[in-house]
Amino acid sequence: MDNFFSTSFNELEEFSISNSINKDSFFSQENVVNKDIVEKILNEVDLFNLKLNSLDISPVHDNDGYYMSNGLAKSETLYNFLTSEKIMKISENYLGGKFRLKCHRVYSVSPGVRNPWHTDDKKYGSKNPNIKGLVFMVYLNDVFDGEFQAIKGSHLFSSDYTHPNFDEDVIRDLNDKITSFKYPKGSMIIFDNKAIHRAKPYFNYFWKRKSLFFQIDNDVDDGEKIIINSRFIKKIDESLINYLGIGKEADMPHEPSRTQIETLNLLNIFILQKKIFSALIKRVFFLTKSFFTGTFKRRIQVAFGKKIIVNTKKNKL
What we know:
This protein is an alpha+beta fold. The chain has two domains: about 5-265, Jelly Rolls, CATH 2.60.120; about 265-315, no CATH class. About 30% of the residues lie in helices and about 20% in strands. It has nine helices and 14 strands. The protein has a seven-stranded antiparallel sheet with strand order 1-12-8-14-4-3-2. A three-stranded antiparallel sheet has the order 11-9-13, with no helix packed on it. Strands 5-10 form a two-stranded antiparallel ribbon. The termini are far apart.
């Protein structure tokens, strides 16, 4: 079996997970994903290292946190995790024979953010009741504040509402059904995409909640673009082709979809200003060098004690 998961989770029958989701909207278990797998994913995706004008895959900063939505191009561990036998079996048991990885992201929600209660049965931002799906949430650090919350049994009645987002006035009537998941690193929650849920706001400015989110559903004809490092693919068959949406449309925008320079936080704006100042100095120096001949530049380098390997009249044979 997969070495990503605890023995108890590997031995758990998939129909038991499906039964829990069908009954309560969700399944959860603590310490599901092995700690070394969690650390490898975090290290490989490099979540907090924003790059500007780089060909490398970079995370982004949205107003509410950091997101890496192209993790399969960066992390072989994440690729193997998302295509693991256990994940595929759980999806097949709940969704049937046809399903696709709709999206994935490693992310960190910033303190003070108040995201709305919502469902994930949507396409291009609009609610689509025909989509049946599962959402997997893995805690990448201990989460005892700002935890994931879901409304028990809400997948059975959320389709009665027109929109995917919910005002708090609506949720107030469902307070007795709210379940909070304060769990340690490596814990997993799996829930129906029609379940009403949110990340609870937190205000600890010296700590960041880090999670892995991925959604699998039966809308196999469209999804977010998936960029994969081809080195990670050791074998491929029809089920993997369908799961990754190979040859299918991938027109849905990556979430968060509206990131731009204005969505950077103050820290990254300050770092960017420093980089711009440094880049300005280097650009002026580069342009200045274009006015001097190679001979003159080499004399300057020699004056600073730099060893030069170049053909000159003196060393010509």
